[in-house]
Amino acid sequence: MDQPLAERLRPQNIEELLGQNKILGEQSLLRKSLENDTVPSMIFWGPPGCGKTSLAHVIQQKTKKLFVALSAVSSGVKEVKEVLADARQVKKLGQNTILFIDEIHRFNKGQQDALLGAVEDGTVTLIGATTENPGFEVNGALLSRCQLILFAPLSKEDLRTLIYSALKDHPRGLQLKDVEIEDAVVDKLIAQSEGDARFLLNQLEWIGKSLGDRKKIDEKLLEEFQYKKPLRYDKSGEEHYNLISALHKSVRGSDPDAALYWLHRMLQGGEDPRFILRRLMRMSMEDIGLADPNALLLATSAREAYDFMGIPEGLIALDELAIYLSLAPKSNSVEIAGMAADSIVKQTGTLPVPRAFRNSVTRVGKQLGYGNGYEYDHDSPGGYSAQEHLPKELAGTEIYHPKPYGKEKQLGEKLALLKQAKKERAEREKGN
């Protein structure tokens, strides 16, 4: 009983595993391969405490193969190479090896590369467990040789079952059969754990060992042991990209409530406010643009305000900016126009600048006729000459298409008038 509760309650067989019915249902391929001792190389991906290591433990109990477990936190290339060398030796004797690597995302590229050949030639069956997106954290060549198994967070009902089992029913549990736990406490513990069975069991063990003569776990008692689970956030991992994506899409979707929620999820997770400011500034250009030119001005002002004020007051500037951008009219016409211009340049190459628009300040330029035919717009009626400024090969090409929203609607109306004047001039010159 010296082991932690979470370890004592580690499932010994597949029937004891909670949740994961989708991947471990009676007719699932994974369950059948486990029962037949034919599991392939796999990557287990899911949040903390959802059963990845527990399933590996069940495989260890059931398989007739040699099972070796390493932690990527404490192991390096040396340990991996030693395991692979041993696996090659026992393979010659007719014994196969399963290598389980917990937190495989912590292995660097060199460490993961060391596994590739052994997995490819069948020296080992690799099972890796990770909380991070394997698409980012696992070598692509290695990932392509493994089945990706997606674990879901444990459900509320799964966690409710676990609480009563750990407290009262399980022979390796706390065995507090005469202790009552209020329903409200159960609900709070479940909510607090966020699907993490390990965290939940650690909380229960702490409470159970500290009860003394008390026979009831109520909300007042829970407050004495309340520990807030840290928000799951990795500033360089998948959750980082998921949250900033959610913030961006909330702003684009004109949802200030969601924008504020995701923004503060990131702040509480330890994200650098300057990173968020950079992304908000990008949104002001990419998603709002000329529909509200003040958006970019406010974004630059928010950056200056944050740098001047610091934390916590400067964070109000981020909130203000997120709300403003969410409620601003949306237009991506500037971004689209830029991409269109890039595409045209790549397709047409270095077309010559029309002679009328070349720099004519030098003597040679004047001798070559640079600037001849240029009409100074300020001297034209209405301050607009309606000249075609594109190379003749691209005359009439439309790159910028304004959206009919916000300030850009007015810009679009003006552009339509300018284009009409240019069209009329072209028709006159053609007629002459």
What does this structure look like?
The chain is α/β, with parallel strands linked by helices. It has four domains: 20-150, Rossmann fold (3-Layer(aba) Sandwich), CATH 3.40.50.300; 156-225, Helicase, Ruva Protein, domain 3; 238-327, Up-down Bundle (Zinc Finger, Delta Prime, domain 3), CATH 1.20.272; 333-431, Orthogonal Bundle (post-AAA+ oligomerization domain-like). It is 53% helix and 7% strand. The protein contains 20 helices and seven strands. Strands 2-3-4-1-5 form a five-stranded parallel sheet, with helices on both faces. It is elongated. The chain starts with a helix and ends with a helix. The model has no long low-confidence stretch (mean pLDDT 87).
What oligomeric arrangement do these chains adopt?
A: single chain
Determine the CATH superfamily of the largest domain.
Answer: P-loop containing nucleotide triphosphate hydrolases
Sheet with the most strands? 5 strands, parallel
Q: Can you tell me the number of structural domains? A: 4
Number of helices: 20
β-sheet strand percentage: 5-15%
Mean pLDDT: 87
Distance between the termini: 101 Å
Query: Which segments are poorly predicted (pLDDT under 50) over 5 or more consecutive residues?
Result: none
The backbone outline, from C-alpha atoms, is elongated
CATH topological fold name of the largest domain: Rossmann fold
Q: Tell me which CATH architecture of the largest domain applies here.
A: 3-Layer(aba) Sandwich
- Strand segment count: 7
Structural class: alpha/beta
Reading off the top of the CATH hierarchy, the class of the largest domain is best stated as Alpha Beta
Helix content: 40-55%
Measured on Cα atoms, how large is the radius of gyration? 32 Å
| Strand arrangement across the biggest beta sheet | 2-3-4-1-5
**How do the helices and strands follow one another from N- to C-terminus?**
HHHEHEHEHEHHEHEHHEHHHHHHHHH
